[in-house]
C-alpha cells in the first residue's frame, strides 16, 4: 500500500474547514546565519501546537458511520495524542488514548481536557502501543496509528501543497523524520509537483532508525534527547519504501545542534519550537555546504516544548554566545579586594548576577581567596576584554564556562 498526489489532494479537500493553513514565512536573520535563503513552515501554529492535526483529521473524516460509533484509540505520549483527542471530540467520536506510565501529568491532563479517555500502561511506548492494539481488538475501536497509515501520511502531505503554493521558488525541503509519516506525505506531494526539488530528512543522532533502515543496517537507538517527538525506534512499513524512493538524503543531528536550533528560532525568529520541531533548522545549520546558496524550506513541525526545558536551552544559549559567563577570580583575602573587582567589572560594562566567595577549597593559599562571579556580558569579545582588565589589575582570572 502506498499513497499518491491524488490522495494528498483529497486529504487537503477533506480537512479544509477543519484546519487552517499555517504560515510560510521568510527568515532573513536565519538565512544570513546559514548562508542560504530560508522560509519556515510554521506547523507549531496549529491549535495543539504540531502538524499531527492534519493526519488525525484526515483519518477521522475517512471513517464510516459504524467506525465512528465504535470509537477510536491511539497510542502517544505527545502531539498525536492531543491531535486525535481534539478532533475526535469536535467530530463527536469517542477517543481513548493509551500513554506510557512515564508521561508527564500535564500531558495527561491536557489530553483529557480535550475529551479523550486516557489509559496509562507500560514503561515504554512499545508497551503502550501493544496495549492499545489489544484494546482495539477487544473493544472494536479503530486504531489511529501515529504515522504508519495512508490517511495519516496523506494528511501530513498537505504541508507540501501549502508550502509550494506559498513559496514556489523553493528548491529544497528539509523535514524531520521519526516514524516517517510527515516526510513520506511531503515527499509524495512535493516530488509529484516539482520533481527537481531536493528533499532532505532529518533524524536525531540517538534515534536514527530510518537512516539505519535505508542503509540496511541493524537498528540501534536509545538515549535522552530533546527531540522526543522524533525519537522513534522503528520506521513505518508504509513510510520506509516511500522515503527510500523519493527522499534524496537523510542526515543526523546531535543534541547540541538541536538545542542551538531551538535557541535560534526563539531569539532570531521569535517562534517557539520543540526539539523535533527545530530539527530541520538544526540540519541546515549543521551542514552549511549542503544548503549554501539554495532556497530552503524548513518545516517547523511543532512547538510543544516543556517550559523548564525551554528555559534551560535559552540560558545555555546565552552561555554559548558569551552573554552569561562565570569567571573565577583570585583576590587577596583582605578588606576592599572584592570591591576593587566589582569596580573594575562595572567600569568595563559587565553586570554582576551572582558572587560565590571561596576560601576553603580549590587549593587556595590561606591569605588568598577565590571568587566565582556570574556576569551578564555583551558577547565573547567582551568576555575576553573583561579577563584582560582583571588580570591587568592584578587579579588572576579564569573563564569557567567554555565559549568558542
From TrEMBL:
Taxonomic superkingdom: Bacteria
PROSITE patterns tied to this protein: ACT
Keyword Lyase: yes
Xref: NCBIfam families: ilvA_1Cterm (TIGR01127), PRK07334.1 (NF005600)
Name by which UniProt lists this protein: Threonine ammonia-lyase
Molecular-function annotations in GO: L-serine ammonia-lyase activity; threonine deaminase activity
Signal peptide: none
Keywords: Lyase, Pyridoxal phosphate
Known cofactor(s): pyridoxal 5'-phosphate
Residue ranges of every copy of the ACT domain listed in the record: 326-404
Annotated GO biological process: isoleucine biosynthetic process; L-serine catabolic process; L-threonine catabolic process
Family to which this protein belongs: Belongs to the serine/threonine dehydratase family.
SUPFAM superfamilies linked: ACT-like, Tryptophan synthase beta subunit-like PLP-dependent enzymes
Reaction equations catalysed: L-serine = pyruvate + NH4(+)
Record carries keyword Lipid biosynthesis: no
Amino acid at each position: 500500500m502506498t499513497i499518491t498526489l491524488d490522495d494528498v489532494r483529497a486529504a487537503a479537500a477533506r480537512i479544509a474547514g477543519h484546519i487552517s493553513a499555517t504560515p510560510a514565512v521568510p527568515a532573513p536573520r536565519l538565512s544570513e546565519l546559514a548562508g542560504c535563503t530560508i522560509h519556515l513552515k510554521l506547523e507549531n501554529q496549529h491549535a495543539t501546537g504540531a502538524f499531527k492535526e492534519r493526519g488525525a483529521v484526515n483519518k477521522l473524516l475517512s471513517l464510516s458511520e459504524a467506525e465512528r460509533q465504535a470509537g477510536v484509540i491511539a497510542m502517544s505520549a505527545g502531539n498525536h495524542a492531543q491531535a486525535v483527542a481534539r478532533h475526535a471530540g469536535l467530530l463527536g467520536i469517542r477517543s481513548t488514548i493509551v500513554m506510557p506510565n512515564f508521561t508527564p501529568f500535564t500531558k495527561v491532563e491536557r489530553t483529557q481536557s480535550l475529551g479523550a479517555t486516557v489509559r496509562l500502561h507500560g514503561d515504554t511506548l512499545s508497551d503502550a502501543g501493544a496495549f492499545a492494539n489489544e484494546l482495539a481488538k477487544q473493544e472494536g475501536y479503530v486504531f489511529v496509528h501515529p504515522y504508519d497509515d495512508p490517511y495519516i501520511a496523506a494528511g501530513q502531505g498537505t504541508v507540501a501543497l501549502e508550502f509550494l503554493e506559498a513559496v514556489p521558488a523553493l528548491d529544497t525541503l528539509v523535514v524531520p523524520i521519526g516514524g516517517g509519516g510527515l516526510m513520506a506525505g511531503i515527499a509524495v506531494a512535493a516530488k509529484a509537483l516539482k520533481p527537481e526539488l531536493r528533499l532532505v530528512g532529518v533524524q536525531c543522532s540517538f534515534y536514527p532508525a530510518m537512516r539505519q533502515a535505508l542503509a540496511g543496517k541493524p537498528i540501534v537507538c536509545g538515549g535522552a534527547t530533546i527531540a522526543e517527538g522524533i525519537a522513534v525506534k522503528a520506521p513505518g512499513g508504509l513510510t520506509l519504501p516511500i522515503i527510500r524512493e523519493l527522499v534524496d538524503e537523510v542526515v543526523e543531528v546531535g543534541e547540541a545542534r538541536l538545542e542551538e536550533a531551538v535557541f535560534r528560532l526563539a531569539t532570531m525568529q521569535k517562534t517557539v519550537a520543540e526539539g523535533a520541531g527545530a530539527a530541520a533548522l538544526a540540519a541546515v545549520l549543521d551542514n552549511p555546504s549542503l544548503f549554501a546558496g539554495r532556497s530552503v524550506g524548513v518545516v517547523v513541525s511543532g512547538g510543544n516544548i516543556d517550559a523548564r526545558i525551554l528555559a534551560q536551552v535559552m540560558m545555555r544559549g546565552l552561555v554559548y554566545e558569551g552573554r552569561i559567563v562565570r569567571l573565577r577570580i583570585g583576590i587577596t583575602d583582605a578588606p576592599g579586594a572584592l570591591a576593587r573587582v566589582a569596580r573594575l567589572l562595572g567600569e568595563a560594562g559587565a553586570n554582576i548576577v551572582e558572587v560565590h566567595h571561596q576560601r576553603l577549597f580549590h587549593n587556595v593559599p590561606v591569605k588568598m581567596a577565590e571568587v566565582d562571579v556570574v556576569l551578564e556580558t555583551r558577547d565573547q569579545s567582551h568576555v575576553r576584554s573583561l579577563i584582560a582588565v582583571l588580570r591587568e589589575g592584578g587579579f588572576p582570572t579564569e573563564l569557567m564556562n567554555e565559549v568558542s
